[in-house]
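As the next step, I selected for study a record pairing a protein sequence with its backbone structure tokens, which the following lines show:
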Amino acid sequence: MSGPRLGDLLAEALPRDLPLNVRHVSTPPTRCDPLFSAAPGADPEVTFCETNFLIVTLNRDSSKVDEEVAVCGFEVLVYTTKRLTTVFVSKADSTGNLRLIYD
């Protein structure tokens, strides 16, 4: 079962005339320590972690690549087991450059 894509959801929520770009880089899921302790007598769940980095940029002049400036960035860790997916936003920060659209 597939749901809506993140980019489509953002496009619905943001103003249509805002010249934003979203870049996404991720690592392949790798095995990691379980997030939760196993129940007494049970084996710990096999857990994988995927690291995602998203950066949102603002393009003041779409004809010039060097006019693109970072607005904010996010690091999102996605932990998965056989029965559970946990999404953790470990870092989120803005650069203050969003004010450029109002200048």
The mean pLDDT is 83.
